[in-house]
Specification:
The protein is an alpha/beta fold. Among the domains are: 164 residues, 3-Layer(aba) Sandwich (Rossmann fold), CATH 3.40.50; 241 residues, Alpha Horseshoe (Serine Threonine Protein Phosphatase 5, Tetratricopeptide repeat), CATH 1.25.40.10. It contains 25 helices and 14 strands. A five-stranded parallel sheet has the order 6-7-8-5-9, with helices on both faces. The chain has a three-stranded antiparallel sheet with strand order 10-12-11. A hairpin with an 8-residue loop joins strand 13 and strand 14. This is Tetratricopeptide (TPR) repeat. It holds the Pfam family TPR_7.
């Protein structure tokens, strides 16, 4: 069989301005596609879509060392013993001899800090040729835990492996992953193995596909619970010793700070339950408030604990720190707890809290100084999952007297709109508008002028690479909260990207969510687009019968809306799926129908694709003269529209037909 033309989707439009060397949205106009974005026509604050960091590579996959590290010498030594490739101790798995260490302990106990510290010391020792890191998000509020397949995907992208060769099946992808690790080691002059760190696991099935196989590689896992992994070596973390807890508090105080020697530090450490997360927040508060007495803070925590049932009085520590925030800082903190995804950029925060980027950045710096958020990379911000869970319990204070009113108000009675819901609307709109602009760059053809939110295609692709997990989370939360427009539109904006990056599992998920949402909303056009994109994703993972059903539903729905152009796309895609299961007669009929509809629409490029796929199907049933005619017509149209890549396919397929 010859080359079939790529599956087809739909196009998007957005407008904006750019200034300087960064992509800059002076004003996002008109919304996305045929919908109107919430507040999009009034967004005029000079918001920068930052040029985000690129994807981590195998040599720089570890998070940086952040903050103080006190105590844990015994556990650190134990981990380093396991990580040392010169040692043979460790577990075994069905994939071969490996060393798997699992750090377990309650939330906020310092598991990630210990694992990252050990990994960095291993790097200093030169033990490994590559360092890979993946956060499995086992307990992140509002975010689904990563599946084993998604975790493999994240790690493989760090290895630099050829993603075009990456299989969609989990078992096959695990084999591909182990081969990639072997290739990394083989390319190293010293043939050193690779260290993989899987943080925040919730279930063993998230981890099992990540077992790296033979070759001296190591897998280091953190989890709140003991995982059922064969042969692994557990490292259990408990709260800090009292002396270490006090030392952690002292570490944030200046050398000449008189409070370093106060007995109140011991009382404060005890009130924090010797839990590192609570201690760091308390220490940050002492560092910011130079007149705050540790003993008095301990008393205050005791008073707050009477109203909290949180383990180790974490809620009391959180609330004590929040009590010293300015109203705007407290508002932003409360709203950040509901941000989709696992981290967030400064521009996204600015849109979410409806402020200038500079003002948002100033507030974020204050929250970071209070140890309520962290900055995992320049211009990006994250919350510990326990802090985020607490933020979600807060009612954001209203600092804007001109806050809009909900049309129906709470309980349908009229009144101020919920600030958390408004913030979620704004940040979802931000992600959708910018993703739409990035998508236009991926779809742009020769002579097109994509929107200037990004300088070019590579910058658009880089933004999507960094934000994709957040974008997927936006789709899920939009579906859960009945935000129909975002739940149907955003998956369409991601369809080309997900195909380019071969993230077919996620594509199937979001397009399924989009089809369900559109059906419930009675949006036949949105449902048609979702079915078409879903069919394309199913085709890529060789679930052809389901793809046929999806494309059939798509072309029926497009027909109902009198959208003959997109109906043509659905027919064309349906024909390709039918050909995969050798239903060539039906495929010929589908491509013929697509050709006719493209002709009616005056779409020469689409007609060329239909002629190409029709010719390929005709070859399969040995109708070679008709196939030669089809490929000749395809070639003519490709030359007419200047599509050199498709023209090359046309020449190849024509040659195959002539050879017969």
């Amino acid at each position: 069989m010859g080359w079939k033309r790529e599956p087809e989707g739909t196009t998007n439009t957005v407008t904006g301005d750019v200034s300087g060397t960064v992509a800059q949205a002076q004003k996002i106009e008109g919304g996305v596609g045929n919908t109107t974005m919430h507040n999009a026509t009034t967004v005029t604050h000079n918001t920068v879509v930052q040029q985000e960091r690129g994807l981590p590579t195998a040599l720089q996959g570890l998070p940086p060392l952040v903050g103080e590290f006190v105590g844990r010498e015994e556990q650190l030594h134990e981990l380093l013993d396991f990580l040392d490739p010169a040692r043979t101790a460790g577990g075994t798995s069905g994939s071969g001899a490996v060393v798997v260490s699992a750090v377990a302990g309650m939330g906020g106990i310092g598991k990630t800090a210990l694992a990252v510290r050990a990994a960095h010391q291993a790097w200093e020792q030169g033990w490994f040729s590559g360092y890979l890191f993946v956060d499995l998000h086992g307990y992140t509020p509002g975010t689904d835990p990563l599946t084993g397949t998604a975790a493999l995907d994240a790690l493989l992208r760090q290895t630099g492996a050829d993603l075009e060769e990456m299989p969609p099946d989990t078992a096959e992808r695990a084999v591909f992953y182990r081969s990639a690790l072997a290739d990394l080691a083989g390319a190293d002059e010293q043939r050193r193995p690779v260290l993989v760190v899987a943080d925040n696991a919730h279930r063993a099935d998230q981890v099992r596909p990540l077992l790296p196989g033979p070759g001296g590689h190591r897998l280091l896992v953190t989890s709140r619970e003991a995982l059922a992994l064969d042969g692994h070596s557990p490292v259990r973390l408990d709260t800090l010793d009292p002396d270490d807890a006090v030392e952690l508090l002292r570490s944030r105080l200046g050398a000449d700070d008189a409070r370093r020697g106060e007995e109140g530090l011991g009382k404060l450490a005890s009130r924090c339950g010797y839990l590192p997360l609570a201690l760091k927040i308390a220490a940050a508060l002492l560092a910011r408030k130079t007149r705050l007495d540790p003993a008095r803070l301990a008393v205050r925590l005791g008073e707050l604990a009477k109203f909290a049932d949180d383990e180790h009085d974490l809620a009391a520590v959180f609330n004590a720190s929040l009590g010293y925030l300015a109203p705007r800082e407290l508002e932003v903190f409360a709203l950040l707890g509901s941000a989709p995804g696992t981290d967030i950029s400064t521009p996204a925060v600015a849109f979410m809290v409806d402020s200038e980027v500079e003002d948002a950045e100033e507030v974020l710096e204050e929250l970071a100084a209070a140890h309520l958020i962290t900055s995992p990379a320049p211009g990006r911000w994250a919350m510990h999952d326990l802090v985020a869970a607490h933020a979600r319990t807060l009612t954001p204070p209203t600092t804007d007297s001109d806050a809009p009113e909900d049309e129906n108000g709470p309980g349908g009675t009229g009144g101020p709109a919920d600030p958390r819901e408004l913030a979620l609307d704004r940040v979802l709109d931000f992600y959708t508008v910018v993703a739409d602009a990035a998508d236009d760059h991926l779809r742009a053809l020769r002579g097109d002028t994509p929107p200037a939110l990004f300088p070019g295609r590579e910058e658009a692709l880089g933004w999507l690479d960094v934000e994709i997990d957040n974008l997927l989370a936006c789709v899920r939360i939009a579906r859960q909260t009945h935000r129909t427009r975002v739940a149907t539109r955003l998956p369409q904006c991601l369809s080309i990207y997900l195909r380019l990056r071969r993230r077919f599992i996620e594509a199937i998920e979001v397009h399924t969510l989009a089809s369900e949402t559109a059906l419930q909303a009675g949006d036949t056009g949105g449902e048609a687009s979702a079915w078409n994109n879903l069919g394309n994703a199913l085709h890529q993972v060789r679930r052809f019968d389901e793809a046929i059903d999806a494309h059939t539903r798509a072309r029926e729905a497009f027909h109902q809306t009198d959208d003959s152009h997109h109906e043509a796309q659905a027919w064309n895609n349906l024909g390709n799926a039918l050909a995969e299961v050798r239903r060539f007669t039906e495929a010929i009929g589908a491509h013929t129908r697509a050709r006719d509809l493209y002709q009616q629409a005056g779409d020469a490029r689409g007609e060329a694709s239909a002629w190409n796929n029709l010719g390929t199907a005709l070859q399969e049933v040995r109708r070679f003269d008709e196939a030669i005619d089809a490929h000749t017509r395809d070639l003519s149209y490709c030359q007419q529209v200047g599509d050199a890549h498709s023209e090359a396919q046309a020449w190849n397929n024509l040659g195959l037909a002539l050879r017969q």
